[in-house]
């Protein structure tokens, strides 16, 4: 009661705001619940029940199209393969999230995991029919683009950030050129360059796969943005730390790896995760070069006339999927920050 | 300017050094036809719930594969957006572009590609609610018209009204989904796009399709068909005749279910067509049963139309055979 009075009805203004919000919720929530749950059509062999008078949300669309939304045009009988690949990815995510797995073996696990995913997705051996990567799609493709994009862009971005701060003129010029050129154009134009211009300049017979071209464009883009974030972290490291490392006689790479980067990256966690989340959603831009990521698959699922006209349901579903992943990332980064902060204060006290 | 530069560069490449090896040999050695299709257009090319490509344009790709390999499934699809489609063909990323592309002279000459045949005759039309009691587009003076921007549709619309000295109020909405909603919500009196689009929208989105009429005036010509790269005549022939074979089969009364019984037919045209006599297939560089394989595995043009477009409410209309009052006229296979 007291909490209520202090926080919601503390003054005339906040009382009005509270009542206004309550009124809005009262007006909006019941119709939404009725539409989304009570009157919704959950399963139907076709869309006729959805089009009946007074029918609510047509979740039957998702039920009908979920395999396509998850796996795109991957051969239907082989859907267990991308399914298994997604599980492998999740296992890798989980292992990387737990700090007690943070040791060199994790890198090996990633290499092994990615090899396994490649084996599952491409096949061609062990009796698995070969599936060309043009047929990869859906959620699987979104996850692959995001995972590979970040996995490659992050190390590159650290090198770029270090390069931008180095005294070697050529390296610095290269790093600055990369960052500024790429940041100066939108991702869409990079994707267009990769998909429309690049093939024209390659000699005949040399064609880089469409997926790979898109992935390279996204890595180049993400690396430039992440580099600036990492640079921000580097600048936050007190100069005394560098000098102390110098005084100990550490050479450049050991100084950077052991003293500077751990501190810089810790400071940079919030903006890094922010960029990761943005990048995860940016993968949906591959729609313009005809790759079937999660969002494109949903759009294409809506095209079939039997199921068209239920865009709201489809996009809500897409929003939900994106939200789950982005929220997980953001929660994890908050936990990680707190944990690192705790261990840092511990260490300080210990000294 | 930028677009023109790119096109010029592409044309140079396409006409120049690009094609040392013939596409037919390349396709045969790699074992599949790489076919560029629309990322999703109902009835023409779209993946179904199981992720299998279906549609009239997709059937064109399958026909080529059936002719070359005797197996219609040996196709790999590259979904392409409107901006990518010509580059994909010019750069050799795909072998055939079968993506509801309108055949125009600028495209045929300026882009380094050749259109092979028309597999769907489309054109821009108008749809109005029946209750407005409009019988002709000439009565649309002062109407509010829903249209998508940036397409030839918008230009054709303006041209048509100017030529007929009429005025209209455009309601310009970018997204298909929204422009359609605007029309059915009554925000405009008329919705204009290609007739194929009008038919599909009416069938799938109208509460009662009979409440909307498509006016008889068709104000533009949009012959849609596949294209191949300029300068490779053998491949051009293969793709062209694969499409023609589907139309010819319908004319001869050969369908996927009946062709096996017709193999023993004494009709010389049928005998030539199925490869029982003559060496038409060999002259194309294909198996002599190329046309038989197309009809057996993909079907004739009418069957493809029935399977893909009929369920959406399409009439054969001008896409009927010439003997039935349409424009589908196959040059003789002999």
Could you please describe the fold and organization of this structure?
The complex is a heterodimer of chains A (351) and B (334). With 351 residues, chain A is mainly alpha-helical. Helix content of chain A is 74%, strand content 0%. In chain A, helix 4 crosses helix 14 (294-301), helix 7 (138-165) packs across helix 10 and helix 10 runs antiparallel to helix 13 (269-282). The relative contact order of chain B is 0.15. In chain B, the strands form five sheets. A five-stranded mixed beta sheet of chain B has the order 10-9-11-8-12, with helices on both faces. In chain B, helix 3 (56-69) crosses helix 9 (233-252), helix 3 packs antiparallel against helix 13 (290-297) and helix 9 packs across helix 13 (290-297). In chain B, strand 2 (46-47) and strand 3 form a beta hairpin. Chain B folds into two domains: 2-121 and 223-324, Periplasmic binding protein-like II (D-Maltodextrin-Binding Protein, domain 2), CATH 3.40.190.10; 124-220, D-Maltodextrin-Binding Protein, domain 2 (3-Layer(aba) Sandwich). Mean pLDDT of chain B is 89; it is low at 1-5 and 10-19. The A-B interface holds A 64-65, 67-68, 71-76, 132, 134-135, 137, 192, 195-197, 199-200, 202, 204-205, 207, 210, 287-292, 296, 299-306, 308-309, 311 and B 6, 9-10, 13, 17-20, 39-43, 46-53, 76-81, 83-84, 87-88, 90-93, 177, 200, 203-205, 311-312.
Number of domains of chain B: 2
The total of beta strands of chain A comes to 0
What's the name of the CATH homologous superfamily of the largest domain in chain B? Periplasmic binding protein-like II
- Rounded mean pLDDT of chain A is 86
How many E-type strands of chain B?
14
Strand-and-helix sequence of chain B, N→C?
A: HHEEEHEHEHEEEEHEHEHEEEHHHHHH
* Separation, N- and C-terminal Cα atoms of chain B: 46 Å
CATH class of the largest domain in chain A: Mainly Alpha
Helix content of chain A: over 70%
Strand coverage percent of chain B:
15-25%
CATH architecture level-2 label of the largest domain in chain B = 3-Layer(aba) Sandwich
CATH-wise, what's the superfamily of the largest domain in chain A?
Answer: MetI-like
